[in-house]
Amino acid sequence: MVGPEIERLMQLLSRLPGLGPRSARRVALHLVEKRETLLLPLAKALSAVGDSVKTCSVCGNFDSVDPCSICADPRRDQTILCVVEGVGSLWAMERASVFSGRYHVLGGLLSALDGIGPDDLGLGRLRARLDGSIREVVVATPATVEGQTTAHYIADFLADCGITVSGLAHGVPVGGELDYLDDGTIGAALRARRSF
Amino acid sequence: MVGPEIERLMQLLSRLPGLGPRSARRVALHLVEKRETLLLPLAKALSAVGDSVKTCSVCGNFDSVDPCSICADPRRDQTILCVVEGVGSLWAMERASVFSGRYHVLGGLLSALDGIGPDDLGLGRLRARLDGSIREVVVATPATVEGQTTAHYIADFLADCGITVSGLAHGVPVGGELDYLDDGTIGAALRARRSF
What we know:
The structure is a homodimer. Chain A has helices at residues 4-13, 21-33, 35-52, 87-96, 123-129, 145-157, 183-191, and strands spanning 54-55, 62-63, 80-84, 102-105, 136-139, 164-167.
């Protein structure tokens, strides 16, 4: 009823995260209505990303240059490496503007359920980066069971390298109410309490 | 930090209905991760829609042919016309598979707030379609204040054409609980009650 082109567009849109068939239909209609101002610029932007963006061969970040602009930036601290699950975590760290070192993107987490073992994470590639200049590896995997399993595995894996392997602190999120926090977080925050 | 191409993509995605800056970022990341299977096909699908889909010069529907496949279909009832706000309403009517006539898309509703007057709706174009063959116009604008104002305006506007102008019935939505219905709907349903 809507023609094969719009049908195909709706079908692809419904595969985007957070969009179901209904919202995909709404987005498709909006795009057709704004053909000149939104649909064509979006098509162009997608092609531009498809043509130019590649995976950094050093750290696994996405950028239009390889090595990526973070790896190539001489002002970044060359002695510290932050290990993250994916590029989404890397972006989150960069938005927070608190880390000045470089990254290492795992591309996944250890998961017995999904059949992802140590070999799938390419930890050899991480180890190969640990030449003499790197003093510390911060493992910033998520605070989930899989994230923490992965963090401990990496800590063990790098134990004989003679460098510091650290992890992000657990605790009360800034702005967080105790009322809404789970017991595990409150326990972790209490155990890691510090004197003023 | 993410490069100009991804930045531009995020900015355009955040202009889609239902997507804010956060979900646009999530969608952009997903697209970059699925470059071959999702990003490039989506770019192609958007270009295809941009190249082929046009507005039907008869009814205002979107289709790759003009007149659209509904207007051109000889099996559709040529004596009845359904007036809708936009193509979204037309799609909803078609999904319901209850209407066999043809459509007329207004492209908006009367709105003092948005400064949309009768001249902006192109009602002359609607009147021009009412040659001898059309016996009834069903005004299926939404059951909002603006939708109903528009419906009454159209009914007055076509009063001297000598054809039936009708509107969709108000009442309890099928599957609807009275508990969750507003008073206006319950009142309308009671006034329009029918004997079994």
